């Protein structure tokens, strides 16, 4: 590493936002998800300088990630550039960087981008760093069963799903019939909304989209298995809608296996334990993990400094007004918090972000702040297949085509940007009214990149120093185990 880059890593530069007014209240927002973006927007007319720091350059509409993974939508439609979204909001500066340190007492945040570390001072802080996938104490499972929390996850899964069909075609053409069961079995772990939507789309993909595309396999014969240790599909929706969803999935050929606890998994399959203690193995090349979430590690940083407790999922116990004990100027919103059994859905983050922003404005104007955050439940929805969904809105329950139309309208409304809304609408028309999917492209790099980065170790940090010495320092990266299957990782 060059001396200049080493100096950048060892000492953080103190940043002053362009256009900042001396003496004006400084708000730092961590995260560009629903909580971060909507809190920034809510401060548009406030007399404050806002710095939004995010480890990605986009705002991700996470509820539609499964459609990127199954070839319906492009990543750009559900992940517009954060800079573009906030370009016309003059009091906001958008910064790319991974937050490495938060000092609540000193009121500073340190972010790192490549080797450059920068310190940002704040008067008020909103932490909306979200959550990642939880493997319930088995992080090694991620190697063989990617989650569904980021664009990288979705693109990797797209490669694994479509790649499995490609390898099955090769196996069938080569006479390797014994390999077909493993190659054409798809296992989705987790029967919540994400798992149900993913299983339904893989079923539609195999039976509608791909059925005329191969010469040696019948894609409609693919086996799709939906596993969950719970005894119900979509438990958050109640028994009635859960049963509706299960019956619809089974009518599509999805095997719904409840009470099945994942014990182990590897490149070639997954081992489960049934309620009676019996263990069995499902041979499957492609596995999707859609069970459980783990809050951002920043929650632990905040807990250590504020004394606020963490739950098992790493979520931090906040005050009723979303602040931390002893720090009325620090708000935590979205998937990072635990308060009054709030669900981990987008609306909690959106409403929490807006609430935090309004609290800041009230304090600056000398007005009394609200003592408690009140969440308005706008309902929950999940699609099962084209023309079929379930929706729970207050005391009302909907299923089938009506629920599907409701789902379409709500998701189109909340997608950020008119361009993305129009693009999404036309992609849906092609996929749902017809049989085609316009985003089936995948590369081996999408499948192997995460594994290659993992091999560099937990101490690896991306650097701009890519000179000749870099490979010798990090070691060469070969294709994992030299496997022949592009999805066998």
From TrEMBL:
Transmembrane portions of the chain: 396-416
Keyword Lyase annotated: no
Catalytic activity: a quinone + NADH + H(+) = a quinol + NAD(+)
Matching Pfam families: Pyr_redox_2
InterPro entries in UniProt: FAD/NAD-bd_sf, FAD/NAD-binding_dom, NDH-2
Domain FAD/NAD(P)-binding: start-end pairs: 26-353
Disordered: region residues: 460-489
Enzyme class: oxidoreductase
EC number of this enzyme: 1.6.5.9
SUPFAM superfamilies, A to Z: FAD/NAD(P)-binding domain
Compositional bias segments (type: Basic and acidic residues): 478-489
Keywords of the record: FAD, Flavoprotein, Membrane, NAD, Oxidoreductase, Transmembrane, Transmembrane helix
Superkingdom assignment: Bacteria
GO molecular function, one term: NADH dehydrogenase (quinone) (non-electrogenic) activity
Keyword Oxidoreductase: yes
Stated family: Belongs to the NADH dehydrogenase family.
Protein's recorded name: NADH:ubiquinone reductase (non-electrogenic)
